[in-house]
Design brief:
The structure is a single chain. The longest helix has about 35 residues. With about 425 residues, the chain is an alpha+beta fold. The chain is built from 14 helices and eleven strands.
């Protein structure tokens, strides 16, 4: 853990003062964050952006916001936006959905937005060709890739596409700037302007541009050598402290699973619990798929296993392994499971090599229980509390018992 002697009273006071200043105008009172929907791509970001861009939106401003987006962000002449149609979740031939599509007689524009979700195999490739198919050679195709910081899409998602085929946009720069123009355009409607301002503050918070406590602390540190040196000592201690918290989590989860199933789960991604915990904060992210697996049934020559996996956040569920112990897709079994019991709530649930995957039991919790060891969110910090940690682990294990029973029932059919 962190040596408390490294943190002076002066440094702690500075952090406290920064926290107060960061909320002087009520910036922490953000309706999206309070309702815990601030990172929901489909139900928060896609819906809100679509409502603003839609000329028939409830804002009552016609195509004003769409014009600002087309002209100012994409550089596409809007001509008053009168002939544009805006839709959400346009289905593709590959049974995927483009987050937003803006279409006119001369242009078709697809927008794929990412907050936390990872790129999927050939995702942008499929979207681009779906737009081309719908354009029928009569319209200009534009595919925009919208992320928090404007990062480039993965080669896996592009497949045969060139990076030049995709326009990269960022919430931090492009969307924030556009939202400010929408606010300026809405001053005659205070309620509307305030709603957009709340969303803009959310974007600033998510992208680190919001004048948050972290921003204010950074400003204080850069002008004070002594405090900066103290902060550096704390920074050096953090990876070891985080690893020790993670190690306790894995050990207690392993013990709980062993007590419940009578078999100790196998560690993967490293030689033991201590190794995966310490290596997590020193290895490249591509090496961070770590966790436990536990066989609970068989289908033919294949084994059905409970997996608890960590990349950014802890997620768990059912996977199938072949005789060599390699995870394989089991499409028919996956379809049968989902037909009877539904889908999971983790991002990995969309991946074909999971029968089902969860961050938490939807019947016994919400996204406050998502343990993110990468960003070390509130749930991860909460593991320091013995009672909170044991409760979270008990919830995970209880849900895994339910999943194991469902899997055994499916295997026997």
């Amino acid at each position: 853990m962190i040596d408390e002697t490294l943190i002076s009273d002066d440094l702690m006071e500075m952090v406290g003062q920064a926290r107060e200043r960061a909320n002087q105008r009520g910036e922490r009172f953000n309706i999206f964050s309070i309702l815990k929907v601030h990172r929901d791509e489909a139900e928060t970001h896609s819906r809100f952006l679509h409502e603003l861009l839609n000329p028939q939106g409830r804002h009552g401003e016609g195509s004003a916001f769409l014009d600002l987006f087309l002209d100012g962000v994409l550089g596409i002449p809007s001509h008053g936006g009168q002939h544009f149609r805006v839709r959400r979740e346009l289905p593709t031939a590959e049974k995927r959905r483009v987050d937003m599509v803006i279409e006119s007689p001369t242009d078709i524009i697809g927008v794929e937005l990412k907050i936390d979700a990872a790129d999927q195999n050939a995702q942008l490739h499929d979207y681009y060709h779906e737009l081309q198919r719908r354009a029928e050679g009569r319209k200009t195709v534009t595919l925009a890739y919208l992320t928090l910081g404007g990062k480039r899409p993965s080669t896996m998602s592009l497949k045969e596409l060139s990076e030049d085929d995709v326009v990269c946009l960022s919430f931090a720069h492009h969307i924030a700037g556009w939202l400010q123009k929408c606010i300026d355009r809405s001053h005659h409607k205070p309620e509307l302007a305030h709603a957009i301002q709340q969303y803009l503050q959310l974007i600033r918070n998510l992208t680190g541009k919001g004048g948050t406590m972290n921003d204010l602390v950074a400003g204080e540190l850069k002008g004070d050598m002594e405090r900066f040196q103290e902060a550096l000592e704390v920074e050096k201690s953090l990876p070891k402290a985080k690893a020790s918290i993670q190690e306790v989590f894995w050990k207690e989860l392993s013990d709980a699973l062993t007590d419940e199933f009578g078999v100790t789960p196998t560690v993967y991604g490293g030689k033991n619990i201590r190794a995966i915990s310490s290596d997590y904060y020193s290895k490249n992210k591509n090496n961070k798929h770590i966790g436990f697996k536990l066989p609970i049934g068989e289908v033919g020559s294949k084994a059905v296993c409970l997996y608890t996996n960590l990349y950014h956040a802890v997620h768990y569920g059912l996977r199938v392994e072949d005789e060599a112990g390699t995870v394989v897709a089991a499409g028919s079994l996956r379809d049968a499971f989902r037909e009877q019991w539904g889908k999971g709530n983790a991002v990995a649930d969309n991946h074909a090599d999971w029968l089902v995957c969860y961050y938490f039991n939807p019947e016994a919790g919400d996204d406050e229980k998502i343990i993110n060891f990468d960003s070390f969110n509130t749930a991860a910090v909460g593991l320091l509390d013995d009672e909170i940690r044991r409760t979270l682990i008990a919830d995970i294990v209880a849900h895994q018992v339910e999943l194991a029973e469902k899997a055994k029932k499916l295997c026997s059919q």
